Amino acid sequence: MTHLIEPNRPRNQRVYSLTVALEIALLECDELGLEAERVEFDGRLRPRIIVADNHITRRLLREGKAQCYGTDVRGGLRQHLIQMRLRDCNIIWKTEFLTH
Would residue 2 count as lying in a domain? Predict the structure, then answer.
């Protein structure tokens, strides 16, 4: 016999809901063809799923489903920082290509 257990304490409820959102967002990333490289999640802020740059991420940016939020220059190479939201998670990647 299984019981559905949900946390009673407010902080535990918040972490639990973010964990569920993270799981669903990872499944949606997979359906979109996005490859997760890692997850950043401290239980307080919105989880971040870092994905690999590919033709699908560039299409999402081109279609306006993702936005550029900054740049990073390392070794003379400029990379654009891109993000979009799935569920209650930020999906983030870096790209050298920026199409408006």
Answer: no
Encode pLDDT of 28-44 as tens digits: 999 999 999 999 998 77
The pairs formed by 17-21 with CB atoms below 8 angstroms and a separation of 24 or more are 17/88, 18/43, 18/46, 18/47, 18/88, 21/47, 21/87, 21/88, 21/89
In a domain, 67, yes or no: yes
Helix or strand or coil: residue 91?
strand
Domain tally, the chain: 1
| Confidence (pTM) | 0.84
